[in-house]
Amino acid sequence: MQTERALALAQQFNLDLVEMAATAKPPVCRIMDFGKYVYEEQKKASHAKTTATKLKEIEFTPRIAGGDFLTKIRHAEEFLDHGNKVKLRLKFRGREMAHTEIGFEVMNKALAELEGMGHPDSSPKLMGKQINVMLTPLPTNKRKRKYTLDADEQAIDDTGSDEGAEEAHDGKA
Predict the structure, then answer these.
(1) What confidence score (pLDDT) does residue 27 get?
(2) What distance in Å separates the CA atoms of residue 123 and residue 100, rounded to the nearest whole number?
(3) Burial per residue of 90-114, b for 16 or more beta-carbon CB atoms within 10 angstroms, e otherwise
(4) Mind listing the pLDDT tens digit for each residue in 148-157?
(5) Alpha carbon distances (Å) from 5 to 11, 16, 19
(6) Torsion-angle region of 129 (φ positive above 0: left; ψ -120 to 50: alpha; else: beta)
(7) N or C: which end of the chain has fewer CB within 10 A?
(8) What is the pTM (predicted TM-score) of this model?
(9) Sequence-ordered list of residues with C-beta below 8 angstroms from that of 110, at least 6 positions apart, any chain
(10) Domains, the chain, ranges and CATH?
(11) Using one digit for the tens of pLDDT, what is the confidence trace for 158-171?
């Protein structure tokens, strides 16, 4: 359609002629209410911003076992990889408050394990009966996963661990 004819048609309905794809041959235009279009685009953009960053929380204890610690670190790494902020919280119970240095060691170890995925907003702080620290994910191109296995490696690892369990069971029987 000719440009003049399209403009006349748009003016007839009190709408605008908006160029959608300038690089196309011929250029693609649409007859619409431009103000409404801009409003819808802003609404989409603001909704995307609010849902983009979520806060995930990981809780530790001062006497956490090694396997549990690694599982929680893997979860934190996964959250950071998805672009979420992570709050690490170490909770003291009872007499554990007498040795807060053990809790700070656990938190510093966790921060060291996650340094390739995110950086702490501040140093770990003791607040009441818990130590808190927030981690913000690094930019996508600077993230280096440490613990997450590829799907192929997980399949190989799963089959290997099942066989080992059967052999250990056969040996005891």
Answers:
(1) 87
(2) 15
(3) bebeeebeeeeeebbebbeebbebb
(4) 655 444 544 4
(5) 10, 13, 15
(6) alpha
(7) C
(8) 0.57
(9) 60, 69, 72, 73, 76, 88
(10) 3-50 (3.10.20.80), 53-142 (3.30.110.10)
(11) 554 444 444 444 44
